[in-house]
Amino acid sequence: METVLRVQGLTTRFGTQTVHDGIDFSVGRGEVVALIGGSGSGKSVLLREIIGLMRPTAGRIELFGVDVWGSTVQSLNALRARFGVLFQDGALFSSLTVAENVAVPFREHTELARELIAPLVRFKIGLVGLPPEAATKAPSELSGGMRKRAALARALALEPEMLFLDEPTSGLDPVSGREFHRLLRVLATGLGLTIFVVTHDPDLLATTADRVIALAHAKVIADGPVAQVKRGEDPWLREYFAEPA
Fold it and tell me: In terms of DSSP bridges, do strands 211-216 and 194-198 run parallel, antiparallel, or are they unpaired?
């Protein structure tokens, strides 16, 4: 399996606090990998370091064979066109309609004419299961689940090879959460996407992830299939996967 993401010796410190202490892992093309960990374990920080928004203290991150933090601004911008990101709150522009939000990547990274962008935007909106009438709505007019789908449509705009998702089901009710899980699985299988998802949602692990990476004590404490990680001996893993009383 081709490696599309490699993290080596990654260390992150904020003053005297060490958040990551020599983290190593890789992600293969086509995998759906879930990153779990307790509050303060640095999951979202790690995601931001991978996509070039926050510089780690030490270590190396390679994305599609490119050294993220050894790249020029130009090469990093070119790299960003190869992946999509869904942030926890969706990060949609509140002053733009859904269609205008989805069109942003086309306008920033391509020279396509407006009349060519419009049908592509409609296709992306339909791809994530939104009705056509959602295109003209503002984000504030959508439910939480629909906003997540709109943000996902924007992340998929440029046919990315990889998706990064930060707590994609946070704030969703159980039904909407399960629908989003199914959508991710369909996209991963149907489009051959590689997906790296930061999550605290056990249901997502059970229904969507091929593999789980667990962070605790500033280290990777487990890395493998869900069933294997659930049998881990670390106290944090036991508590995370404990059956409700």
Answer: unpaired
